[in-house]
TrEMBL record:
GO terms for biological process: meristem maintenance. Keywords: Aminotransferase, Transferase. Residues 59-405 form the Aminotransferase-like plant mobile domain. It comes from Arabidopsis suecica. This is Aminotransferase-like plant mobile domain. It comes from the Eukaryota. The keyword Transferase applies.
Amino acid sequence: MDIDVGPVDPSVLYEQDLHVSSAVWEGQERGLLRCQEHTSLLHQWKLTDEQIKLVDKAGFGFFRKIGPMSLNNSLISALVERWRRETNTFHLPLGEMTITLDEVALVLGLEIDGDPIVGSKVGDEVAMDMCGRLLGKLPSAANKEVNCSRVKLNWLKRTFSECPEDASFDVVQAHTRAYLLYLIGSTIFATTDGDKVSVKYLPLFEDFDQAGRYAWGASALACLYRALGNASLKSQSNICGCLTLLQCWSYFHLDIGRPEKSEACFPLALLWKGKGSRSKTDLSEYRRELDDLDPSKITWCPYERFENLIPPHIKDKLILGRSKTTLVCFEKIELHFPDRCLRQFGKRQPIPQKVKRRDRKNRRLDDLDTSMSLACEEWAERGDHIVDSPGGGNVVDDGAYMEWYARISITKLYREAFLESQVMNMVK
């Protein structure tokens, strides 16, 4: 019997031919992804008390405490194989799961409510002007410290990591902006360029009060969604974005490669600080563990026990985790689908609405502008689109959901297990 490498019903996972799982099933291994997050040198920045106050004001007071995190490339690579950019969710044997807005706030301590982070790319001349005006110093193109409006993280650290004791307030602000640019460039907005960060983010820190009004967490999630989607394509070999968030999310929800917790504190990423997981476990073993995932290995609602640690201003916004909305970060537009993962909120999971196909090719600039305008409008209405489980006659039992899910998804990546599951789904 010939069996397609894909779901029985392809209406949801319509990009299966591009997905890494199609290559895995054919025995074409791409190896471990190169994880492009650069937190290892964050501890070398020496911030003064005055700088710390500005960092707090800009919205990064909790986030800066996380610092360097050791990444498990094998675990991350295995998780990426389950990510589907059609739904912005992980497709696991027992259903879909995802990283939601409330989890960004809890794990990273970033604001998930506020103004969207939008803007446009800048040219080299404008980038240099920004550096001169907001940092007070210019990177050298001759020394390759700047290229295509992106500055090297190493230049920022070498030039600004220690603020002079007798510095004026203008100099203190410049050093703090450099730190914040380094911080986001090595974490939430890390790119596959590796050691560079775009100067386009620098004006976001011109006014520290205004910086504190941005929804940094929402933009961080938009970037991670985009990074996961790109890395899930079989043609890719790198992943960027906030991989600390991705790894911590897995530790909280899945008992796979999970280390022992540290003492509880906020932000919750610190529970895993300095705790190495089974980093020597290879990708194939993690892949098999995800294939064999059963209810005993999943914690749907892992944060309830930490409620007393959550600051009130964070707790007040957690309901946005259930907002079916649009996330933006400059040119990136990503959809947030908590309605597909309601069990993560302690609710029954109905069969989700059909996914709309996204045209990702040859998008013209004017279409992008229009889409960004609509995306910002949807974000402005985020509080009006809180999803919940349906009641009354619309309730779908778990068996009906799982029967639907088995037909639209790919729950096994190993060839033998995949064939067995597909045959069973075809005869139903």
